[in-house]
Amino acid sequence: MAQHEHVRVAVIGSGFGGLGAAVRLRREGITDFVVLERADSVGGTWRDNTYPGCACDVPSHLYSFSFAPNPEWPRTFSGQEHIRAYLEHVADTFGLRPHIRLGHEVMMMRWERDELHWVIETAGGATFTADVVVSATGPLSDPKMPDIPGLDGFPGKVFHSARWDHGYDLTGKRVAVIGTGASAIQIVPSIQPKAAELTLFQRTPPWVMPRMDRRISGAERWLHRTLPLTGTARRGLLWGIRELQVSAFTKHPNELGLVETIAKSNMARSIKDPALRAKLTPSYRIGCKRILLSSAYYPALAQPNVEVVASGLAEVRGSTVVASDGTEAEVDAIIFGTGFHVTDMPIADRVVGAEGITLAESWKDGMQALRGASVTGFPNWMTIIGPNTGLGNSSMILVIESQLNYMADYLRRLNVLGGRVALDARPSAVGAWNRRVQERMKRTVWNTGGCTSWYLDASGRNTTVWPGTTSELRKVTRSVDLAEYEVVRVPKQAAAPERSVVEEIVG
Fold it and tell me: Range(s) for CATH 3.50.50.60 in the chain?
């Protein structure tokens, strides 16, 4: 029998954003909500990415919620299994399990103008209605597979890094790794000792800094457990260092020269072959693409069973992979480390707004959202880690908590307005916000550094990164300005919603 349920808030996704939203809702006194998750467990990208060597490139004590510190992190940079365990712990500690609906992939979200609520259809036939939707699917949830001619005819094994096949043994195999992003530089050192041959297809070399990872001692863990303020101080120090770095990324990219020198030294320690070093040296300013951390990547590339092809994969002919420069290799397995649908998130095709168009159609000229959260024509719909909220050097958990502040105030405003009511971001407000963000983006290293990165959309516009500090973002998302929204109500005798602008609200 089909399930029908109405809730005040529907949260989509159970990664950091979704679980964080659920905790914040409960702390705001809202218990009438569900968390809709397509998989069979919580964890988001830290559930899906289980490839060998998977770990975070943000220090552990900064990559956790401020309201749920973890004194038991085992390493300064935690691995995937520890982060996933932390998220499971958050779900249990804050009593979120009764709200979570596993196996409920959202197939469609549709705004009902007459009812002022969202109708959400999920896999398996379950339908929910919600006054407010908080979309926390995240930008790193749907793997991107390139369209390679001949790939369908490859007789060996093919998989994406985010869909790792643990049943396939790479021992003694000839393996091609496609891509040199954050996943690939962790995968290569992990599988290189097993593979008979490893061919790395590199379109663009990354800048790689040493990974200063170490085991956190039992004494440190005891101290953080016994005196929680020491963990808070550690987190604050990590945050402060990164805040001081922001101006080099956003205003003074030339100041990053010293960082480039450190990265080159990291390479020189392991790569002695001048030809290989030339292949691995980027031609763009460090920071233009995300700076990667590894002390094992370059040593792995220097091994005799590894070949670096300074070109992307162009074609597959049977068991032969062919690069754009004509280089060929016979392989048994192809592993794609080609990233995710970041600027073209598939969830956008499943959200239908007030005017009957999808979010993808609304964003056909590029993603934009008021304060990274609200989109014109999609009333009472908010996104976590929305357009231009990404970071180039710090923890996304800081961004998530800022957006949760905005979500909480949004719900308070709806309560003050009272009755059946919705807020729809005014086009002028969204446009003004986006123009300010894009104007600030012009001088950043992400736009001026001379690279093409996943931060940019198909038209070359940076719709991903926040061009400022995390403290700035927290300030601009602290509260909802009702002047930036239209208030939508359903009058008693009207067939269509009535719209008005609230100039001032008291309370």
Answer: 4-142+341-500, 151-212+238-336
Contact 425, 387 (CB under 8 A): no
How far apart (Å, rounded) are the C-alpha atoms in residues 326 and 276? 18
Q: DSSP label at 160?
A: E
Beta bridge partners of 315: 322
In CATH, the number for domain 4-142+341-500 is 3.50.50.60
Give this prediction's pTM.
Answer: 0.94
Give the model confidence (pLDDT) of 446-468 as tens digits: 999 999 999 999 999 999 999 99
DSSP string, 346-374: GGGGGEE-TTS-BHHHHTTT----BTTTB
The mean pLDDT of 88-96, rounded to a whole number, is 98
Instruction: Check: CB of residue 334 under 8 Å from CB of residue 321.
Output: yes
Instruction: Give per-residue pLDDT as tens, 31-64.
Output: 999 999 999 999 999 999 999 999 999 999 999 9
What are the pLDDT digits (tens) for 283-333?
Answer: 999 999 999 999 999 999 999 999 999 999 999 999 999 999 999 999 999
Backbone φ and ψ for 34, nearest 5 degrees, come out as -130, 155
Residue 447's nearest CA partner among 462, 458, 436 is 462
Under CATH, which number does the domain 151-212+238-336 receive?
3.50.50.60
Check pLDDT > 60 for residue 493: no
Residue 503 scores a pLDDT above 90? no
3-state secondary structure of 110: strand
Distance CA 480, CA 458 (A): 31
Dist CA 310 CA 177 (whole Å): 12
CA distance 253 to 421: 46
**C-alpha of 182 from chain center:** 13
Distance CA 261, CA 288 (A): 15
